[in-house]
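Lecture notes, continued. The same structure-token format from the folding unit now serves as the input rather than the output. Read the line below as a description of shape only.
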């Protein structure tokens, strides 16, 4: 292992002669140039980590010949071009991370062959097109991040079968349509981020079944309708942001059940009615933003219970009465 050094220059093509090597870790250096296609000669590699360098050019298709690989990290480089379909030959792969590059094109269907994958991170590239329809082939996935790309279309219903997922991050794409009711089947989810897309319609009541959630980000979409009272079942939530949508109706009293919340953002919606007294039960809250709604009535005295509060934004509403 040669990671976390000051290595510079290009990876020599002769590296392919090290055919008995099991682990190659050159991460966190200053390496430049292309990944040599000769790396495909290292048939016994189980782990390949070239992350956090300045490598550019295409991912060589010869990597598809490294059929013993369980881990492939190429993230945080300057790699471009399409994800080679040959990666679909890496049937033993459990962890694939290609994030923070400039990869383009669509997500190749061949990646669905990687049925042992537990981690798939393709975030922060220039990937376009649809999320593959048959995502349920990757039924062992625990961590899926496709965020910060140019993906479009709807979220495939097949995601309902990824029941081992703990993290689902699709933020900052161009995904549209409804948030699928089927999301309720992802009972192990702890982190759900669908923000920065074009999702419309209402927040499904079934989201209240995701009782392990600690993070829920649905902000910067085109969601409408009421905030479902079923959110009150998510008693492990720490961060909740529904801001910058077109949500209407009242803040449900059930939000008072979310006593682990530290951040609550509901700003830039069309929420009306009074600020519920029940918000005073959120004793761990340190950031509350209800700006730019149509809230009326007085500020409830119970807000005074929020002794950890650092940030309180209530401007651009229709609040009245005394400040006590």
């Amino acid at each position: 292992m040669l990671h976390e050094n000051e290595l510079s220059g290009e990876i020599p093509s002769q590296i392919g002669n090290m055919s008995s090597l099991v682990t190659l870790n050159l991460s966190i250096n200053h390496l430049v140039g292309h990944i040599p296609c000769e790396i495909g000669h290292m048939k016994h590699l189980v782990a390949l980590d070239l992350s956090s360098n300045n490598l550019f050019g295409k991912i060589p298709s010869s990597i598809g010949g490294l059929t013993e690989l369980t881990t492939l990290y190429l993230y945080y480089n300057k790699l471009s071009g399409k994800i080679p379909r040959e990666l679909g030959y890496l049937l033993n792969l459990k962890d694939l991370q290609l994030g923070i590059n400039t990869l383009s094109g669509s997500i190749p269907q061949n990646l669905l062959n990687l049925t042992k994958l537990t981690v798939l991170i393709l975030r922060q590239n220039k990937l376009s097109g649809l999320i593959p329809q048959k995502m349920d082939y990757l039924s062992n996935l625990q961590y899926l991040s496709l965020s910060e790309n140019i993906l479009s279309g709807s979220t495939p219903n097949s995601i309902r079968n990824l029941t081992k997922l703990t993290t689902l991050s699709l933020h900052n794409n161009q995904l549209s349509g409804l948030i699928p009711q089927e999301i309720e089947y992802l009972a192990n989810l702890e982190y759900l981020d669908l923000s920065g897309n074009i999702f419309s319609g209402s927040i499904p009541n079934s989201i209240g079944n995701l009782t392990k959630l600690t993070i829920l980000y649905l902000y910067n979409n085109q969601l409408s309708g009421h905030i479902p009272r079923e959110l009150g079942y998510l008693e492990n939530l720490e961060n909740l942001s529904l801001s910058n949508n077109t949500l209407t109706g009242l803040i449900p009293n059930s939000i008072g059940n979310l006593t682990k919340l530290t951040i609550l953002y509901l700003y830039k919606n069309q929420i009306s009615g009074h600020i519920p007294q029940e918000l005073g039960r959120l004793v761990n809250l340190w950031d509350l933003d209800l700006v730019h709604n149509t809230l009326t009535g007085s500020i409830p005295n119970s807000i005074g219970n929020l002794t950890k509060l650092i940030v309180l934004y209530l401007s651009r509403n229709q609040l009245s009465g005394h400040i006590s």
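Point for the exam: DSSP finds no helices and 27 strands in the chain.
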